[in-house]
Description:
CATH topology of the domain at 41-207: Rossmann fold
Oligomer: single chain
Strand order of the largest sheet: 8-7-6-9-10-12-11
CATH superfamily of the domain at 41-207: Vaccinia Virus protein VP39
Radius of gyration: 19 Å
Bound molecules: S-adenosylmethionine
Order of helices and strands: HEEEEEHHHEHEHEEHEHHHHEHE
Shape: globular
Low-confidence stretches: none
Amino acid sequence: MLTLMKNSLDIxxxxxxxxxxxxxEGAVVCKNSKHKxxxxxxxxxxxxxxxxxxxxxxxxxxxxxxxxxxxxPNYDETDTPAMLTEKAEKSIFAKLLNDELPFNIxxxxxxxxxGQMANYLSLAHRYIFGIDMSFNSLQLANGxxxxxxxxxxxxxxxxxxxxxxxxxxxxxxxCNGVLHHTLKAYExxxxxxxxxxxxxxxxxxxxxxxxxxxxxxxxxxxKLSGNHFQSFDPYLKRKDVTSSKKNIWFLDQxxxxxxxxxxxxxxxxxxxxxxxxxxxxxxxxxNLSCFDEDYKLLSNKPxxxxxxxxxxxxxxxxxxxREGGFFIMIGRKR
Length: 334
Ligand SMILES: C[S@@+](CC[C@H](N)C(=O)[O-])C[C@H]1O[C@@H](n2cnc3c(N)ncnc32)[C@H](O)[C@@H]1O
């Protein structure tokens, strides 16, 4: 139980006072304040509120409640590690990450949801620490890990604004589809980037302000029509997706309590202000058609200029990137 945590206790800290932690009688205890964090189903409960009664806290609560009710993405009854691999290879992105991330490293997945990426990446020899604030999502993540005896993934309930890890603890940080559900995405970015080692990679996936345009229009149509015309969404039309997955997607995309949208230029600024060198993006700036199995995720690409970035984002809604209007930026800590 909690083997991975036991073996790496030196990278953990108390999310309240930042002191060292110990494992005592099935609980996690702060060595300084003696605050005790319970552990349920092998998931340490180390969620700590940022500021009570603030707007931030209100949004955090609403989003937490939403993902407790609707853990994302959901597993199918039949999912196995082989199925996870098959799905990942279809999505290309997860396969490329798996191919290119080195072995024997510590990876943090922030907002891991039900841990599909974390469990998949742990099949190769890497240690994955998945954190999320939704306990129900983490329970599914850990249930899968336990069922298939995956030894190198582990899951923790945590607020990304109040990390339970020390600075510079990870060789890579993945944070996909999370920061745009927080009040201050850039503050969230700053909070997690501190946990990255020099030379480590950060992978940030966000809704794109331009790529999201059709989703926003569809949201209004669904609202006005009482959720009719769902086939306007390309994902909801797909024949290879189960109806429970479609339902979770629909709620996540159209009934989420809070979301923001961002641009390449904005994230480049985040990178610049935090000594992160731009590596690449999906879609690639100025070249939307080149993302395939030969794409090199972790080798440097041009970051373009204000026009090429604008044009790339402008055409996103008319390409394969229209599903969710999502973009990914990868950087490396200098
Ligand atoms: C859309 S899901 C993304 C799940 C997964 N990363 C993926 O790509 O499928 C967003 C997740 O972010 C988590 N989240 C949002 N705000 C968070 C916060 N402040 N701290 C920790 N997790 C958070 C939610 O609980 C939810 O599971």
